[in-house]
Amino acid sequence: MREVRTTGEHPPWEGLDGTERHAACIVAARAGNRQAMDVLVAELTPLVWHVARGNGLDRSTAEDVVQTVWLALLKNVDRLKEPRALVGWLVVTARREAQRTWPSQKTELPLAPEVADQLKSETGLPEDAALNDDRDHRLWRAFGRLNARCQELLRLTVLAGRSEYRAVAEALAMPRGSIGPTRGRCLTVLRGFLEQEGGSR
Amino acid sequence: MNDIDPRDDRRGNEDTAVLTALAHLVDELDPPPTDLVQRVQFAIDLEDIDVEVARWVRAGSLTGVRGGQPGTITFTVDNLTLMVNFTATGERNRIDGWLVPAGEHTVEVRVSEHASATTTADDGGRFVLADVPTGTTQIVVHLVNARGERGRTVVTPTIVL
Fold first, then answer.
1. Which residues of A touch B36 (CB under 8 A)?
2. Average pLDDT, consecutive stretches of 10 residues, N- to C-terminus, chain A (201 residues)
3. Pairing of strands B106-111, B136-144
4. DSSP 8-state code for residue A41
């Protein structure tokens, strides 16, 4: 196990949250504070995970993508122009890394956004057998039928709605208290699928 | 919770209910694996941070080969290919590897909570580490060029053996 290195009693990110906290961690990481990077990994791995999963990756591949994204940040930590923009950088990098695996080695051509929109989640979602509630079951199946763009967006919406992910809402311009036109369209499609799955009672 | 204002649009109440249910499902059914944060923290705890990341090439038949089963795993980055075969020998692993293009590259196998094992590939790019502990494992390759000069460092994501 690594020894925890602290600079004095209080790490520079202590007491900060959201974007300010991430920026303080990046600045500390650049100065060689390894604990700062661990804090970012602990707090933002769910974000990277849901971008990877929302882009149609199975759980095993999503795990690799999460690791690749953090290794890429390690390499680029000095080159990140704006430490406050970390969340945006992670989302873009995770999305690009996920899309790189889409062709599943069949072709090296990247998918156009229009194709991406049509991409059904072939890998499927985790076992839903554990769901007792029939409505939950139908909702999960309906969600799995959404295109990758909507799945990612709705996963990020769910994260951004939580206070500890305030930075996600800020970075992705998802003001809390508003759904916005794109999310509105995704939710409309989701409601349609939900009705096909057997009503929305 | 998603405190989305139901007055946001006319389907607001319904959307809020769907998002709330979805939030619960995403948490319940699809959270990151519990050890993923720890594995990432291990993967980035490197001496040299200027590394290239080799990606796991998952042929269809290999999908799902994780967690202790012997098998060959292929990683690639740029023009480098690393193939590794793991054979379990009780609590330990024998690792047979092959690097293309070949060269007398230094290969370091890092296992969480153990000392690293290091060897050098032969001029055919092959290397063997006969007795490696099991656990969260990462392979670090320090490449040398044809004149034996040190070049890039390539790392794999961690795998659990």
1. 45, 49, 63, 66
2. 57 91 95 94 95 91 95 93 92 92 48 46 49 77 91 90 81 71 89 81 48
3. antiparallel
4. H
Are the Cβ atoms of B41 and A38 closer than 8 angstroms? Answer: yes
For chain B, how far is it from start to end, CA to CA, in angstroms?
37
Cα distance from B56 to chain A (closest Cα, Å)?
8
Beta bridge partners of B72: B85
How many domains is chain B built from? 2
DSSP run (H or E) holding A19: helix A18-30
Same domain, B148 and B96: yes
CA distance A20 to chain B (A): 22
Q: In B57-77, which positions are buried (b, 16+ CB within 10 angstroms) versus exposed (e)?
A: bbeeeeeebeeeeeeebbbbb
Q: What are phi and psi of B142, to 5 degrees?
A: -95, 110
Whether this model's ipTM surpasses 0.90 comes out as no
Looking at the fold, whether B70 and B4 belong to one and the same domain comes out as no
